[in-house]
Amino acid sequence: MDPFVQSNLALWDAWASFHPDTEMYNMEAFRNGTSSLTPLEWGALKGRVEGRSLLHLQCHFGQDTLSFARAGAVATGVDFSAEAIRKAKALSAELNVPADFIQAEVSTLSLPATFDWVFTSYGVLTWLPDLMPWAQVVSRHLKPGGRFYIAEFHPAMMMFEFETGRYGYSYFNTGKPYEEVVSGSYADTGEGTLRKECTWSHSLAEIIRALMAAGLELKDFNEFPFSPYNCFPEMEEVQPGLFQCRHVPGAPHLFTLEMQKP
């Protein structure tokens, strides 16, 4: 495993140990039946995944995977963190919501099954040094006619430092990671432990062209000036459940992409 990815694995194992207890993940509501899917992705996928097989890449501790399963999908979640997968399996058993969970690094994943849908969302691509192997994994696990859906933070917004709005990061992938020490996590900055994270920039062209090179065809693309998560510094709620970075409110915050395997 790439040493930077190995460093991130230690980070995500640590985060998975306390994320289920954070306000952001709201486990009480989830246990009582509330879906963790946001209106953005569920608005696009409702009525299209029920009764279908769905592979969720980088599933963390399984909330979205189990939300799809509750909605009638035959769901499989994959994450490289052993701690995340352990918690996902325990949550599936606790709630009696059947889903498969597999520990694997997303860029080298090779399952015997193919799926009607491959799904991934929110803060997934920045942890990957190279999108070409990832895109091949997406394509390889889709049935002919199967669809890929991603909702992700927009790379244009990720150029800025949230605290100040100043330019801080390249829009393009330089091949070298940004190595930074962070306190706590996006879900709980007050947790306080200092840990290193390694992230990479990926432009929209890099993302789309990697998926096209893997044989997928573009079906839908959208950009949005808000985030459904208050997970970055200096964000303000501009509508109920929708947040903007106060220093760059005009920047695109999210994009969604749907592609199909011929």
In short:
The protein is an alpha/beta fold and 262 residues long. The protein has 7 helices and 11 strands. Helix content is 27%, strand content 27%.
* Total count of strands: 11
Helix percentage range = 25-40%
Q: Which CATH class?
A: Alpha Beta
CATH topology, by name, is Rossmann fold
Structural class by SSE content:
alpha/beta
Taking strands numbered 1, 2, ... along the chain, how are they ordered across the largest sheet? 3-2-1-4-5-11-8
Estimated share of beta-strand residues: 25-35%
In CATH, what is the homologous superfamily? Answer: Vaccinia Virus protein VP39
What's the mean pLDDT score? 97
- Measured between the Cα atoms of the first and last residue, the distance is 32 Å
Q: Nearest-angstrom radius of gyration?
A: 17 Å
How many distinct helices?
7
> How many structural domains in the coordinates?
1
> Could you state the order of secondary-structure elements as H and E?
HHHEHEHEEHEEEHEEEE
Shape: globular
What summary fits the major beta sheet? 7 strands, mixed
Question: Judging by the overall fold, what is the CATH architecture?
Answer: 3-Layer(aba) Sandwich
Low-confidence stretches: none
Task: Describe it.
- This protein has 262 residues and is α/β, with parallel strands linked by helices.
- It has one domain: 3-Layer(aba) Sandwich (Rossmann fold).
- It has 7 helices and 11 strands.
- The protein has a 7-stranded mixed β-sheet, sandwiched between helices.
- Strand 1, helix 4 (63-70) and strand 2 (74-79) form a beta-alpha-beta unit.
- Helix 1 (3-18) packs parallel to helix 5 and helix 6 crosses helix 7 (204-213).
- The model has no long low-confidence stretch (mean pLDDT 97).
